[in-house]
Structure formats: C-alpha cells, structure tokens
Specification:
The protein is 78% helix and 0% strand. It contains 11 helices and no strands. By secondary structure, the protein is mostly helical. Pfam families: UNC-93. This is UNC93-like protein 3. InterPro entries: Ion_channel_UNC-93 (IPR010291), MFS_trans_sf (IPR036259), UNC-93_regulatory (IPR051951). Belongs to the unc-93 family.
Length: 352
Amino acid sequence: MVRPSWVGCLELVRYTMVAASLYLGFCASIVWVGQGTYLTSAALSHARDNNLPEGLTLGKFTGEFWGLFASTQVLGNLLSLALLRNGKDGGSVLGKNMLFVVFLGCMIVGIVLMCFLSKREEKGNIDPVLCFLSKREEKGNIDPVHSSFGVMLKYIVAPLMDQRILLIIPLIVYIGLQHAFVWAVFTKNIVKPVLGISGVGGAMAIYGAADAICALVTGCLTSGLYSATFIVSIGTVVQGVVLFWLLLFYSPTVGVLGTAAPLLIGALWGVGDGMLNTVLNTVLGLLFEDAKEAAFAQCKVWECAAVAIIFFLSPNITLQAMLIIMTTALFISCGAFLFLTIVIDKPSTVRS
C-alpha cells in the first residue's frame, strides 16, 4: 500500500522541527550566558568608573534590560494580532510570512548593534571555574586541565559545590516553570476558552506590559541581597495569590467579569515575573562576580530543564495537578532564598 504524499511531508516537517529546535536551543544557551556575563561586567565597570554603588547600578542595568526585553511581549503580540487577525486557524499565509520577515529584520538589526558593543575589562585574572572550587587557592597552585572535556565537566560540576548556587537553583527552576506555564498552559487552558485564539495575543501583551514595568521598578529598588529577598517575597505573594485563585476559585465564565479575569491574571503574573526574573539575574551578578560565566550557565541549564518539564507534562496531567506543582515549587524557591539571606550570606557579601 502506497502512503499518501502528505504523510511523508508531515514526517519531514516533524524531523525538520526537531533539528531546528535543537539548533535554536544550542544557540540560545550561548546567547543568554553571554548576555548575563556582559551585562554584569558592563554594570560593575560602569559603577567603578563613576564611583557609584555597585549593587544599585547592577540592579538598574538588569531592570532596564529585562524591562526592554519584556516590552517585546507587548510589541510582538500586538504585531502578531495585527498580522494574523484574518484567516482560519491563526492567520493567512501572507500574514505569517510578513511576521517572520519582521522578526528576521529585528534579528539582523540586533546582530549589527551587537557589533558596536565595547569590550569590558575584567577586574583581576581569576578563572571563573576555579573560583568555585576554592576561594582561597591561588590560580598558580592548581594543576591545569588539558582536556576540553575536563574543562566542560568542571564548569558543570564545580558551581554545584557552592551552597549559594544550590539555594538559588530552586528559584531558577521556578522561573523556568512559570515561563513555560504561561506559554503552554495559561494561554491554552485559561485564555483560549474565554477569549479564543484571537485573544491570546492581547492577553500576552498585557502580561508583557506588566512584566516590563515591574522589571524597571524592581531594578531601581534592588541594591543588595536583603532588598532582593524582600522583592522575592513580594513576588512570591503575588504569584501565590494567582495560583491559589486558579486552583481553588477560578472557572471560565461569560460576561465582562469572565472576559476580564484572564487579562487580570496575566497582568498579575507579569508583575511577579518582572520581580523574580530581575532579582535573580541581579543576585547572580553580585554574588558570583568572579564566576559570571559559570553562574549564568547554571541558570540557563536549570531554567531550560524546567521549561522542558512543563512542555512534556502539560499534555499528560490536569490543570489542577500542574497548579499544585507550581505552587509547591514557588514556596520551596522562596524558602531557599530566605535561607540564603538569613543563614548563609551576610550583608557584607553583597556590595550596596
């Protein structure tokens, strides 16, 4: 029996998407580790050159970056809403092609602008991996690693020997979980049943706007570990309220209140994400200034692993089970961060 030609086309598309996803994931890991490292270096060198508080300067730099990054949720979703408003099942072919052309143009502009970034000089000559292994050992007393595999292994394992990164990992994991929850579960199970496919762009635009504003404000208020812990606590309360609302009280309804509910949930979720994401990147830069590459690499490893977990679980478990997982992860991450502040680190370890 000869298979229809469209079956072969579907299989080709499937394998092409898998290969493209692997390639994009590999490239994104490099980009995001470089982003965190460069932003931290730029902020701290700017603070030293201008005799400014390092913690507050890094907080502002981080807040401005993540605020602008979150604003793309607004522009991108409004653009998608405009170009894909006509046509069945998410827009016409012309609209989709136009959307990809616009995104490609933005990427090209970003690459060109990146070429004008100035080189940031590092303070001292400290190996970021060896810094994790021993803060008191001199670099010259450690045997060099001859194998590239050995270097890679040290970058993976060495940060896990630092109890500070172990206490931050739950927050990293939760941020990955909640990002994937918004993308895969919130839009499908909360927004779409009430607002339809066409309303997803508008709801995500509101989420992005709240995220951007809150990231900018959080960056201005974050000056050290204690202020970061206070903001993490507020972000935990905000997202905890939303999770309990969805778990215990929410049900899709019609009318004005039913339409407004997904939009309000998106806005509150954006507020919490703006707080937690900005604080996380600021604290990583402050606590691990001499090991930025390793710290931000760990951040992306755990965050991306959490994103993958949600995408694998979402088709196989109920919304209630997903909300229970999210709530548990949220309070574990907040507790670990509080423990980091109260027991492990002292005010002097983070420069204000």
